[in-house]
Design brief:
By secondary structure, the protein is an alpha+beta fold. The chain has helices at residues 11-23, 62-69, 71-80, 135-141, 205-220, 253-269; strands spanning 2-6, 29-33, 39-45, 54-59, 88-90, 95-98, 101-104, 107-110, 113-116, 127-129, 146-149, 155-164, 167-178, 193-197, 225-233, 236-243. Helix 1 packs across helix 6.
């Protein structure tokens, strides 16, 4: 049996993935809330910080989901491992503030900055920092957080990854277009995104490189299922954040999740 666990915010996605699993001939699958007790051979955790039950395999261990809910340790871990994450400063860093920049070690981060509290959802809870001297106040007010340099992005993408042990695959990449381009200044905020799947014959060499790199980044932080937000700026690209339980509405990407989950189930449980 495969059990898909979900918090309320990802219920529709969990149900959609379960339906596609059934369409592939696996009827023994069910969806349930995070803390409902059950037992199964595989649990697919779609964003729960805690789960109850007995399972042989858990894709997305809840402790890893909890760690990733605070974006700062994840960004630091990826930065320390050499992955491109852009320039940012956290409340734990040794930094010096100036009106027009913040200096962290030998790295200068120019104003303006985008400040985000330790935990946030759906691109909300951001503050535009126009003077570096505001950071001390913000870090104290929100008991931490981070501020990254504001980039005028060319494009933003979301890469979907599923893996287990040494076998990780980027199952798709989607371009994120703002619902209201006139308001497109700071990521998502309240205006939301329209997602477009980038088909294989549309992928540039840069996008293929991004997909290969991102799947290893997800493995680095110990998640099995994740969507990773990417920004491109000129010839550069960097990771904005990693999501451990994002919604999936695409009729192209959702079946790929289902097939990949089945593949892992057959490979591990069938041994």
């Amino acid at each position: 049996m495969i059990v898909i666990k979900y918090p309320l915010i990802t219920k529709l996605t969990a149900e959609r993935i379960a339906e596609y699993i059934k369409e592939n001939g696996y009827d023994d699958v069910k969806v349930e809330r995070c803390l409902r007790y059950s037992s199964a051979e595989m649990c697919v955790n779609w964003g729960c910080n805690s789960i109850r039950g007995e399972y042989d395999i858990v894709l997305n261990p809840p402790e890893k989901v909890r760690e990733n809910s605070n974006k700062i340790p994840t960004l630091k871990a990826l930065r320390d491992a050499g992955y491109p994450v852009g320039r940012f400063v956290t409340s734990d860093d040794e930094y010096t503030v100036y009106p027009d920049k913040v200096v962290v070690d030998d790295m200068e981060i120019k104003i303006p900055l985008i400040f985000r509290p330790p935990k946030h959802r759906k691109g909300r809870d951001f503050i535009v920092v126009l003077d570096g001297r505001e950071l001390d106040y913000l870090f104290e007010k929100y008991s931490g957080g981070y501020a990254r340099e504001y980039y005028i992005k060319d494009s933003e993408y979301r890469v979907h990854v599923v893996g287990y042990e040494d076998d990780y695959k980027a199952i798709g990449i989607m371009r994120k277009d703002p619902e209201n381009p006139i308001k497109y200044s700071i990521r998502n905020h309240k205006y939301g995104w329209v997602f477009h799947t980038v088909r294989r014959n549309e992928r540039t060499q840069t996008l293929n490189t991004i997909m290969k790199t991102v799947k290893m980044a997800v493995r680095e932080i110990g998640l099995n299922i994740a969507s990773v937000d990417i920004a491109t700026v000129g010839d550069e690209w960097f990771i904005l954040e990693v999501n451990s339980g994002s919604g999936v509405s695409s009729n192209i990407i959702a079946p790929r999740y289902a097939r990949r989950i089945i593949n892992i189930y057959d490979t591990i449980i069938g041994e």
